[in-house]
Write a structure and sequence with these properties.
This protein is mostly beta strands. The protein contains 2 helices and 29 strands. A hairpin with an 8-residue loop joins strand 24 and strand 25.
Length: 415
């Protein structure tokens, strides 16, 4: 089961004027690709059964858009697909947007980056919406949360006197919620949740006043999750859920071997997105990398699935733990590294072998789990890398499959 709800901490000034930057609200009938424009997007909208969805409403909002009017609908449509299901939106200012497409009972939404050229989004498949049943508890601050919305969507719902709210008709994927005070002039909290199609996510936000930070909301771990365990730290960052191709590409994920490995993989190292697939057990997208191993050289059968966290190096001294879901064959090792082009300058903190099984399991890695140099000649230890981490690596060892989902950092901020 995909991770239900989860949050990351973002600090805002106590009073923040909200700007509302949407797009042109004039209704536009899509004409399909082939117009004279050199900027915009087009796509084919399909139902779950693969049938073209004609005259379906769509909206394009900046990713930091916040609604100003109360609404139970995910969007108010500005554009519509044509009779063949083609949606085209032209003359868009370059930037980061959330595209949302809605029918009566199905929805799709994704963050996209608009450039100066026309982008073909291919086929968009609508899915059943999800819901959030939420509570914002222990509101002791005068700037209490009274409204709840989702960045990039038009939905804005009232929070009742007990802190309860419900958001229906939400798209599957990672959504960033925000809470407003009564006057809607101050964002008093925001948080990231993972929403599943046709599923109600139960989420509890426990607010507290930190003693050593700015006077803004700090988020506690959610104790209502069925498939996660609350961590010690209030800061949680969902590093990767594999639901968003743009986010995946921005992190430059790769699935590869190196000159010492005898394993072989089924697709080029720079095409790791080919390993992202739908998984029924996790109710969403996961990464599944497959490789072959030589039975004669057990110490040299490994693959690397990794991403760049920071080009310059980020200080993760406050790291409490990293959690992820995994399954496969053989074993894996988890590593945080200061990785450079020169092998002699590379510093690595990694774990001992972690056996994998053919069922999804949740793993939690703490800094104390990293091997010391005296225990493993390839590990330079956590102290050597903690202030300048540049890469995250998962090593698949002596197997044929390495599958991963929902990688979460606890206790530290990431770029």
């Amino acid at each position: 089961m995909k991770m239900r709800g989860f949050f990351s901490t973002f600090l805002f000034p106590a009073i923040l004027a909200i700007t509302f930057s949407g797009c042109d609200n004039s209704s536009t009938q899509a004409s399909g690709p082939g117009s004279e424009t050199t900027n915009g997007i087009f796509a084919t909208i399909l139902t779950e059964e693969g049938i073209p969805a004609h005259t379906i409403g769509a909206a394009l909002r900046k990713t930091d858009f916040t609604a100003r009017d109360s609404s139970q609908a995910a969007i108010s449509a500005d554009y519509f697909s044509d009779s063949a299901g083609l949606l085209e939106i032209n003359a868009i200012e370059p930037g980061e947007y959330r595209l949302t497409v809605v029918s009566d009972s199905l929805i799709f939404s994704q963050e996209i980056f608009i450039t100066d050229s026309l982008a073909d989004l291919g086929q968009i498949i609508l899915k059943k919406p999800g819901s959030i049943l939420g509570t914002i508890a222990n509101q002791e601050d005068p700037e209490k949360a009274k409204w709840i919305g989702v960045y990039g969507l038009d939905i804005l719902s009232r929070i009742d006197s007990n802190g309860h709210f419900v958001l229906h008709g939400l798209p599957a994927g990672s959504l960033k919620l925000y809470a407003l005070n009564e006057s809607q002039l101050s964002i008093v909290a925001d948080t990231l949740l993972s929403i599943q199609s046709a599923t109600t996510t139960e989420w509890i936000h426990i607010s507290r006043t930190p003693t050593d930070t700015l006077p803004a909301d700090t988020l506690q771990p959610d104790t209502s999750f069925q498939d996660t365990v609350a961590q010690d730290s209030s800061v949680q960052i969902l590093w990767e859920s594999f639901e968003d191709s743009a986010s995946f590409a921005k992190k430059a994920w790769y699935f590869s071997t190196d000159s010492s490995s005898l394993a072989t993989i089924s697709f080029p190292a720079d095409s790791a997105w080919k390993g992202v697939v739908e998984n029924a057990d996790r109710q969403g997208k996961v990464f599944s990398g497959y490789y072959s191993s030589s039975p004669l050289m057990q110490n040299n059968n490994y693959v690397i699935f990794g991403s760049r966290i920071s080009a310059e190096g980020v200080d993760l001294s406050g790291l409490d733990s990293v959690t992820f879901f995994a399954k496969g064959t053989g074993s894996l090792r988890f590593a945080l590294e200061r990785w450079n082009n020169s092998a002699s300058d590379n510093l690595k903190a990694w774990t001992a072998d972690i056996p994998l099984s053919n069922t999804w399991s949740r793993y939690s890695i703490k800094p104390s789990d990293f091997l010391q140099p005296q225990d493993d000649s390839l590990s330079t230890g956590w102290e050597s890398v903690r202030t300048t981490v540049t890469r995250i690596h998962f090593f698949g060892i002596n197997g044929q499959e390495l599958s991963l989902d929902d990688i979460v950092f606890y206790g530290t901020h990431l770029p």
